[in-house]
């Protein structure tokens, strides 16, 4: 099948003999597969789940197997029908080294390109003048050099030698600006050796966001050019590279599962030559599908900007993030699937604690498991519910904290505390490089010691990569030196003996903090779980929980008989496997995930962990729906720029998914304020808005929280925390400075509902047609948008509509009796309520589905087709003799605007981009990530083809037929379609010489052409060995 693939990719070649061979081989292979009587399974990955940890990345996949099966009907006249059976299963995806977890590292290496020759990104050859304008404007490597990226273990192995060109765990800094990262626990515990920048990425709305970026130097010293000797990548780009690597691993797994061996190909060709009748199996012969959907695990404490940035990173990699799953929730769901008969007890709620200690953080959650009633389980295929009861976390405690505890002890004893802080004190790149290598060596040795002490009482460690001077030892270390506990080798390396007792005594504070988190989680249940012994189950996951003393401390009080905590789940894989099952079982019907009907469903109930606010601005839009230059705010404060924030979804009190209606009253005809102006005095409080559009901006972030809480009174803040059914825009509105709302690390997402004037006119014309004998005037109107807090914790608006009430008045006594011109079948409820109910039903049908942005992450919300709802206050059977009120509703176009809009007292527009990238930047970065991927694919394809050609040449030259007669002359002999009677030895020699001379710089098409020729020769020799004649 690889031969057929090569023919297809190369466009059937340019030589006549090559086209003949390709045609012949494709005919033979396809007919053989059709004639095959053995089962043919096609394995495809429908969805991948990725757990981006600090020390390792785990990948699982929902893989389906498709097979044609024959069904025979019983009785007289048996009829055989063929159908397709699809089964699905969750499996772990192995990396190139066949490991189940991979270091989240990517390395950039630059090599000198062949003189006078450049490899194009599509696999051909060209000069630099032929490169695209985009490639020249955004160079990824210096002129005359080639870029090679490596991932996982290969990249991690390069880190000690090239720390400036290897980036590990970029997802840990996603969503951070430089200032927020350096002031947070992330920056304090893991200083980066790279030059960290905040590249001012231009936004489509004219603003800029402060993206946390890494500068990767082209070389440490010997490559200098006009490109400032480096390339800058944002944290989202680097994370997208890792996600793209995960997708490629899933693709390779599918390709390996669907590949046909050479023996299988030979058997299929024998079946074809024997004249076996086709059995209709050709429909299954197709290439594997590329995974398009992904589920990603995130910590519970991730803010909305970080979640959206992770969705954007997936979009850069060509993946649609269908759901973000919390790590502890993924593990809890995995437990429900593994031990359903134990955790789901009819008539009882079981409380189970999931203790997750990763490398950089700890999360402790308590979940309530309840079995679904039998009737509901049969009707809706719901097994039960998993509800979050309590959650506590610590963002500084984790496995890395124990590593640093050991490293800090060694640093103080043997290096005068100069290693761990050396990176921050480095003044030059050379100093930063050296300090990074020393720090990395010390932390790796500490991590190794911790792992050894998990199974042994003593660990013998040698600290490589740093010079130890006994003269600088602490007095305690000097005593250890005399007692031969430590030693300095002749080349200056430090060798020491470290015991488990020393480790436990030195890190006592960390063990106490870990146990305190367990107790805090129990206290957070407010008496639902009285103590540790009241838990029905206590599961621990995460690599940090392998420390024996930690398990012993956590188990204290769990069971009277001293039973240790439960370790049913796989510490590394539970979260990602549960995320896969949850995403597949709860997937919306619009996602074409095959085989999901076979997965039992669980109703998962979680809190929204971040507060969400909304501000409202009125304005005018241009013809294309973009914000016009004279957009103005609802409120004009007397002094200073302000933003009116209203709490929309409170944190820890909103069960997701949740919907909420935001209403804005519109100014009617002739409405004036007390001074006779058609302008609102207090904005959202008065609810009177003038303009053709309304801008609704969602805010979420720590700066917005602080600004809101600082301005809200104690009573208002307490009332705002009670998320009731109120939809009035005046509830809990707080004016905060615009600078506070425009935080650079916040999630800021503006939407614009426009076309209000046209909608009013449309509704008015409808009423006038229904009541031609009266005067129609607008009595009241409001714009309503529906906000959704999704299961992934990312809020957005879904639909907008205009609700208007028209008053119909008789024109004179002669026309005092009005007869409706037409009747309506509208239900006896207001139009807005009708749309509200429809929206609620639509949302209820997708309880556990994610409705994130489109594939590009920032695409405009689709425009709804205008629909109307009518309600009258009278019936159509009797004439009307007085004023009537007619209620109408029509949908409004709702778009994601380019930037949030506020105004000052001078009506100036201020763009607030927030942290997350705009659509223009996302498309630009996506193009760059795709260019890098294309370069990698071409490099890998060329390397694979060269190896295959070389292997084929070696195989042919080892056959007895090669030495049977002297090789033919070295002239250019054309190989015919019958290799058995041609000068094939000369052809093999020609290909071998060509590979030696041009193999390193040859194009993919040229390599494929030679590979096909070698495989034809190889097949002919095998046929000759079997005593047959080559086909």
UniProtKB/TrEMBL annotation:
The keyword Kinase is assigned to this record: no
Ranges of Low complexity composition bias in the record: 184-193, 859-877
Cellular component per GO, a single term: endoplasmic reticulum chaperone complex
Coiled coil (residue ranges): none
Skewed-composition ranges (Acidic residues): 845-858
Alphabetized UniProt keyword annotations: ATP-binding, Chaperone, Membrane, Nucleotide-binding, Transmembrane, Transmembrane helix
Chain ranges passing through the membrane: 21-42
Residue numbers spanned by region Disordered: 184-210, 819-877
Any Gene Ontology biological process: endoplasmic reticulum unfolded protein response
GO MF annotations in UniProt: ATP binding; ATP-dependent protein folding chaperone
Record's protein name: HSP70-like protein
Organism: Leptomonas seymouri
